[in-house]
Amino acid sequence: MRVRLVTIFVLTTFWSFAVRAGDPAERVPKDESPKHSDKTSTARKEGAIGRNFSKQVGPQDLVAIGGSVKTLFGIGISNATILLMDMDGNIQHTASASFGFFIVPNVVAGEMYVLSVRHPRYIFAFPAQVIKIHKPIMDFEFIGERNF
């Protein structure tokens, strides 16, 4: 459990620095002018970490969302894959913990997302939700039924 928390902390820290720093390919020293046209500066760069860096996002615009994945009887479902897709097609994913809880950090507030869940041994009546995030929300709930 401690290793998982440290891994989540390291990945979260890396992601927040990447969002604050922007795309390194876009950085130009103050003395030099850009050597590429404006068309390439707004295009998505290869190797970006799943986020379109043409949008400038400040740390105050980032929130975390979370919730739980449970059975009909309220028992947590572990290792369910949670996917969060924005309208540009960028996907963040996480897995539910041992009691079914999940957190997706560094979500840009004010945008529309599709939050979905999947698990090989469970089926979900409503496996996806379209949401608009304005503030941190920690009460998303997915109810799964055993898939025999």
What is the oligomeric state here? single chain
The overall average pLDDT, rounded, is 75
Alpha-beta classification: alpha+beta
Termini separation: 30 Å
How is this structure best described in words?
The chain is of the alpha+beta class and 148 residues long. Strand 2 and strand 3 form a beta hairpin. The longest helix is centred in the first third of the chain and has 20 residues. The N terminus is likely disordered.
Descriptors:
single chain; 148 residues; alpha+beta; four-stranded mixed sheet; four-stranded antiparallel sheet; 2 helices; 8 strands; 17% helix; 36% strand; disordered N terminus
Detail the topology: elements first, then pairings.
Blueprint lengths: L1 H20 L16 H5 L19 E10 L9 E6 L4 E5 L5 E8 L3 E7 L3 E3 L3 E5 L4 E10 L2
Parallel strand pairs: 1-8
Antiparallel strand pairs: 1-4, 2-3, 2-5, 5-7, 6-8
